Amino acid sequence: MAGKPKDEILHDHNHDGIDRRGFLKCMAWAGTGALCIMQGGVLKSYSLSALSGLKEQHTKGEFSFVQISDSHMGFNKPANTDVAATLKAAIDKINALPAPPSFMLHTGDITHLAKPEEFDACEQLLKGASAKDVFYVPGEHDVLGDDGKQYLERYGKNAKGAGWYSFEQKGVHFIGLVNVVNLKAGGLGNLGKEQLEWMEQDVKHLSKSTPIVVFAHIPLWSVYPEWGWGTDDSAQALSYLKKFGSVTVLNGHIHQTMQKVEGNVTFHTAASTAFPQPKPGSAPSPGPMKVPAEQLRSVLGIRDVNYVPGKHALGVTDSTLE
Amino acid sequence: MKGTILRLGFAGLVIVALMMAGRASSSGATAADEKPATEIKIDNFSFSPNAITVPVGSTVRWTNHDDVPHNVVNEDKSVKSKTMDTDENFSYTFTKPGTYTYYCSIHPRMTGKIVVQ
To answer: Do A227 and B68 touch (CB under 8 A)?
Structure first.
């Protein structure tokens, strides 16, 4: 262990289930941001404070993309009375990256109440980003009142069902899933039979060396079911990905960064650009968390993902808006 | 005699008038005595009280005190609220007896029950 950088976490991919210690340590970083690099089946995480020297090296990939999440346009409660300003700060952060990202993923809760003007406001701000293409999946707030009709009209033209789709980018296969519609009483996020069947067919023809990135709003792993932070039928979806050597799952919804490794799959949740939510079980409910104004931008953020071909790995960097 | 008939006729009219007044005042009394809605608070992602029993004809009113939107939907969707943002409410009058289990379709872990009898 000598020479191991301080704050580095090694996850053993052969280890079954949650590495509790590593998991908790990652949680302790929630809001401060973390860099994750997966190499040869081992995930290395560094706190952002230990980033100097590393960042340059890992931004030199074949391509990179940015994940933003939970912009909640229209939210105006004390936890953040100006979500447009913090989304703008996120875009400034994206535009300041050493290499412009190829595109952006927005993992849902674009809006707070699915109002047309809220969607418009987000689109308008994102036009100012260096990455022009945005790939969306809906959050539960984006499908309020109309079961996602408006969302589909705006973003689902080339999508199936409630808005799921896949695309290729330089050899990486991206799958956008929808787990926020037709939710059952007492249940969690839900993908549904039709979407699962589509997904099974979608990945069938791919070679096992194809890197896979799955993105959806609600976590596809059981973060904290007591607060609805999980997806009922995610195990079925993940079973279709067993043959692949590198699977990265990107989610939003819980407004804080977390990571977990299980077998060939690395799970990440992203920070919100709007307001933080409490750590699992640390509050009576997962409602918006008020932090002192001067601390707000330290608990919001963006994620930069860097792909280096042949490395079996995606380098994931979480940055706060400070 | 004539006077007596007139008096009887008048008495009859008075009785009819009184009966009508009685009807009017009785329906007026119903409106005045109408029970206020039974309140259910939505707080910290839960319905409180979580399970209640009310007589047929009762009105139940849900008010959202959270900083995030919620709704109320029952199993067969016969009770379905609009999305309630902070401090908004939804009222429903239960005219049929039965057990109504409902949830927030945005946060499906939130469930509640109303027994109407």
So the answer is: no
**If you count residue pairs, one on A and one on B, with CB atoms under 8 Å apart, how many are there?**
55
Q: B111–A186: do the CB atoms touch at under 8 Å?
A: yes
Is the per-residue pLDDT at B6 higher than 60?
no
ipTM value of the model? 0.80
Confidence at residue A61, expressed as pLDDT on a 0 to 100 scale: 62
Q: Which CATH number fits domain A11-42+60-300: 1.10.645.10, 3.40.50.2300, 3.60.21.10, 3.10.450.50?
A: 3.60.21.10
- Segment B28-43, tens digit of pLDDT: 344 445 678 999 999 9
For chain A, give every domain's residue range. Answer: 11-42+60-300
Asked if A129 and A166 touch (Cβ cutoff 8 Å), the reply is no
pTM value?
0.81
Q: Is A161 on the interface with B (CB under 8 A)?
A: no
CA of B108 vs chain A CAs: smallest distance (Å):
5
Q: How far is A183 from chain B (nearest CA, A)?
A: 6
Own/partner pairs for B54-58, CB < 8 Å, 24+ apart?
Answer: B54/B94, B54/B114, B54/B115, B54/B116, B54/B117, B55/B116, B55/B117, B56/B94, B56/B95, B56/B96, B56/B97, B56/B116, B56/B117, B57/B93, B57/B94, B57/B95, B58/B93, B58/B94, B58/B116
